[in-house]
TrEMBL record:
GO MF term set: DNA-binding transcription factor activity; transcription cis-regulatory region binding
Source organism: Roseibium aggregatum
Domain HTH lacI-type: 7-46
PANTHER family membership: LACI-RELATED TRANSCRIPTIONAL REPRESSOR, TRANSCRIPTIONAL REGULATORY PROTEIN
Name the UniProt record assigns to this protein: Lac repressor
InterPro entries attached to this UniProt entry: HTH_LacI (IPR000843), Lambda_DNA-bd_dom_sf (IPR010982), Peripla_BP_I (IPR028082), SBP_2_dom (IPR025997)
Amino acid sequence: MTHRFPIKEIALQAGLSTATVDRVMNGRAHVSPQTRRRVEDAIAELEQQEGQLAARGRRLFFDVVMEAPNRFSREVRLACGSVLTDLHPIAIRPRFTFTETMSAAECSAILQRIAKRGSQGICLKVRDTEEVRHMIAGLADRRIPVVTVFTDLPASRRLAYVGLDNRSAGKTAAYLMHKLLPANGTVLTTLSQHTFQGEEERYEGFRQELDRLRPECRLVDASGGGGLNPETRREVAEKLGSSPPISGVYSMGGGNRAILQALSEVGQIPGVYVAHDLDKDNLELLRQEQLTLVLHHDLQSDMHTAFRHLLAYHGIGTSPSGETSDVQVVTPLNIPSRFNEPA
């Protein structure tokens, strides 16, 4: 068993004699499994304390860069604020760069500015392009780690990905659609952009699983609105003009008010509507039962995990295991209590 702490220190932490700890550390006989476990736990506790001591008094700047609708960015900002108290005594100073639309060139310019002024880490939600992957490689060379959040860039040199298993989320949506949709239905699918790798994985998981479960179902894709209401409404209205009546909707990228408005304008009310994320708009639509259900994941937990990856890179704590978030199926009847409106 390897370690970097004195035997006496481990013995004090474990509440054992130095002779007993020495026997455990050197793999000698006559040591019970319980004693070995106590020594292993003591070393883990000392490592945690060491990380806390190393963090005390340190100030780290983490940049959060995202291309997303304002309604989603707002929720991420709130999640980050909640996380900071959980990570005390580490002084984390988040800096936010949020835009609703961002080209690859604009993203590269933002990352270049961050590299120039310095950063201890970046949480990044952007489209998967070669130019951005190249920028991440340059940041890695400068020892500025990048954690991708909510949508991944798997071919890049990012440190980790944090967020949903998006393919599994898409399959979950397909299963629920299969159970709720009437026979021979037509399903409208919407992504903000196909170049968001996470949404693309949701779409592929949904398409493949629904084809397996309900091969007679037709999909009508009205993607490309960026999750923004005016653009999304225009994309959906254009597709509705030439499609059969819509029985179900799977919205992967938001803009649900716009989608519902476009459907209403042609006199259609889908029987099943599956959306993602409990932002302010979706909560209201869910309470009004205009959405059937929302696939949700805890943004606060995601940002906590992302920050822990960045801290571990700098020798503070350990990297979390199990990076992907669990998907929660939320209906109007089981909205999590922290989203409840005050009485």
